[in-house]
Every structure is written in structure tokens, then in C-alpha cells.
């Protein structure tokens, strides 16, 4: 599925959707790392962490997070995953990071360490080399410079190692909480957490429950979870929270307006679902995006943009092309005079469904509706030329369309380049000179495009004009030195030129 097609679709959606100012605020990107360590080899195995991690992964994905999960991680795997999370967060300040860990952890001299499943730690002094320091994790996420990072550690169990100090329990107080951070321990510093009797540990089971509640702000989620844990444990377990974040953050969607559901504006509700669908799609959670846009369409079944959006999400999710086609066709039914939509469906027919005849029909309709747009002519020409199989009539049609596109946009280098390719399809030396002139004009208009030099060089080479071919290949190599194929072409052209000169 071509990226250029999807980019174009997003632009078309924007054309159909005049968002109010509140909706135009970009939703944060959301990335999570979930680690569940249970099957330890050097210390006692744990019952719940793998379930905890799998259930947390599912919940976070449902909230729109892009999630990486590490099950039974080694130190290298855990460290690599943390660096990957940091890299994702660095890309945008407007992003949320979420780190969740379930497994063994210990405290040593005021520092906390997460224990990999294969760790061999015969003495306390080896923790720094063979376990992951929580403070290192905190520093790495701090360096990302994003808006919010949440770190959740369901790991405050008794020290499992034989060398542990008498009475050593739980983890230590966090001594450095960066701005923009919320750090949550399943239980207070120096105390041990309960594993729970069911599928999940006590703390995680309550956290999962509260993350499912729609419209809760982050601090509400944490407060409710803490109260639930204390109630269920009869105050034997009291979670600990370290805040350095004073904004308002929703890990899922924001709450509905205060109106009763019966009074809610369907269009406003549909827009909310549409915005949510974009958030999911930005994090490549396309099933969730499709579910959200389905809700938008349920509330606003005559909105062109929502059909385009659903078609887009299905396209990116590699769904049945017929489903995508149905949505684009419905968008055209609702907005039958919009040339962009016919062009969009035409590209679907050609690039995805490989039905050039239908694509040509749609581009022809786009031209009828908007005859002054060169894009429609060049798109139809592209279908003619790539479907021609050296059929002279179809090549003629392609050339005619390129002529019109160039007439409308005479400074577009790509149009000359593509017309040159079409001339070469004739397979006749009589047309090679036309192709050569078009490649030359493309270079005049865009002299930094290595592809244009490479293609003209190949035309020279095929006509045994090795000196001209070598010159074009040399310029292409200068502009794009990392391309090995062009370097090989240059070497061969020079060899052929040398042979040609020797023969003379």
C-alpha cells in the first residue's frame, strides 16, 4: 500500500472537515513499554507478571497507545526496549510515555533495581551490572523531553536473593522525580506487595479496572486505584505515588460534555469519535481507529469525510479492497461534484485493485469536473502508459494527456520526465530524441534530481553514446553517492567508452 496514496487521503479528509478550534488541538502521541518477568531461572518464579503484562498491553492499546511488550526479558532486551521508547518520545514533545513493569525488583543502598529473568546475582555489589536501575530508567525518559512520562512498578515484593539483608522488603523512596513525571509503586516504600489470588496481582487488577473507565483524568485513575487496593487489602497494601506533573492528562479519551446523552449534539459527538479515530490511526492502532470512525458514521451517516477516513484506515489495515471501494463510492455519492474524490478512487482502482479501465473512467470524470487541474491529466496518463504494454494507441493517449498537463503546468519537471518515459515505450529510435529532449528539460527545471540524470544516462547508453552516458551517470553519483547501482552503471559506461575509443 503506497504511502503517497495515504498522505493524499489525509489531505482530502482535511478539506472536507472544518474542525473547530478545540478539535484542532493535536492529540498527544502515546507510546508504552510493558515488561512482565515471571519465569526466573536463578530465583523463585512468579505467578502473575505475564498475565499482568498481557492485560496491560491490551488496555493500553485500547487507549490509543503504541505498545512494545517484553515478556521474560533479559537485561539487554529490557535496556534496548527502554532506548526504543525514549527514541519514540523524542520525536514529539506532545507525547505521553508509559512504562509498566511486573516482576522481581530489589532495593540496595537506597537504589531500586528491576531484575531480568536470567540474572545471576550472587552478591549485592553485582546489581549495578546485572539488573536495571530504576533511576537509570527515569533519567532516560527525562532526556526524551516529552510532556508526560508515567512509570508504574508492580514489583515491590520481598527480596528473593539469599544475600538479602535481614528484613529487606520492598523498594526505596524515589529520590529524583523529574518534571513531567508520575511514578507509581504498587505499595509504599519499604513494604511488600500482594501477588493476588486471581489472574492479576492485586495492584494491577485494580489499575486495569480503572484504566477501563472512560473519561478519567490520570490523577483520578491513580487515586481510585490506590483506594481500591487499600480497601481490598484492608489497608495491608498502600500504593505510593510520586508526582512532578501538574497538568491535566487523559490516557484515553477526554470526558463527554456535561450534557445528558439525550441532549448531546450528534455532530459534536461524531467529531469527537473522528478525532479519537485519528489518534488511534496516528499510533497505527487501526482496529481501534475503525471502531471509532464507525461510531462517528453511526452519528453522522451523511458526512463525506468520515467515509474517506474509514476507507483510509481500512486501506492502511490491508482490509478487503471492496470495503474501501464502498466507502470511497459513498463519499462520491454524497459529494458527486468533487473531482478530488474521483481521483482518489481512480488511484485505488489502479494502484491497489489493478483495474486500469475503472481508473481511467474516474480520472476522466475528474477532468470533466475540473479541466484546469494538471494532476488529473498526468494521473490518467500514468495509467495509460503503465497499462499500455507498448500498445501504440494507449501510448498516444498518454502523450496527449502529458501534453495537456504540461500546457497547464509548464514548469513541472516531473511531467517532462514522465512524458519522456512514455516516449520510450514506443520502442522506436524515432521517438528516443523526443524522450531525450524531455529528460533534458526535466534536468533544466530540476538540476538536483539524480534520477533524471540516471534515466537520461541509460537512454544515452542504449544508443551507444557512452561519453554522454558516463557524464550523466557521474552527475547522478555526485548527487546521490550512496546508490551502488548508479556507480556500477558509471563503471560499465566508462569501460564501454574505453572500448569504443580503442576501436576507433
Work out the helicity level. Answer: 55-70%
Ranges with pLDDT <50 over ≥5 residues?
Answer: 1-5, 18-25
By CATH, the topology of the domain at 25-244 is Rossmann fold
Instruction: Provide the gyration radius in Å.
Output: 31 Å
Which strand order spans the largest sheet, edge to edge or round the barrel?
A: 2-1-3-7-8-9
Please outline the major beta sheet.
6 strands, mixed
CATH hierarchy: architecture of the domain at 25-244: 3-Layer(aba) Sandwich
SSE order in H/E notation?
Answer: HHEHEHEEEHEHEEHHEHHHHHHHHHHHHH
Structural class: alpha/beta
Please tally the β strands and state the result: 9
**Strand residue content:** 5-15%
CATH class identity of the domain at 25-244: Alpha Beta
The number of helical runs is 21
Q: Write down the overall mean pLDDT.
A: 87
Q: In whole angstroms, how far apart are the ends?
A: 51 Å
Morphology call: elongated
Describe the structure in your own words.
The chain has 504 residues and is α/β, with parallel strands linked by helices. The protein has a domain at 25-244: Rossmann fold (3-Layer(aba) Sandwich), CATH 3.40.50.1460. The protein contains 21 helices and nine strands. It has helices at residues 3-16, 21-24, 49-62, 75-90, 127-130, 134-144, 202-211, 218-233, 266-282, 286-299, 304-316, 321-334, 339-352, 356-369, 374-386, 392-408, 413-425, 429-445, 450-462, 466-479, 484-503, and strands spanning 29-36, 66-71, 95-102, 105-108, 111-114, 132-133, 148-154, 181-185, 240-244. The strands form two sheets. The chain has a six-stranded mixed sheet, sandwiched between helices. Helix 17 packs antiparallel against helix 18 (429-445). The longest helix is centred in the C-terminal third of the chain and has 20 residues, at 484-503.
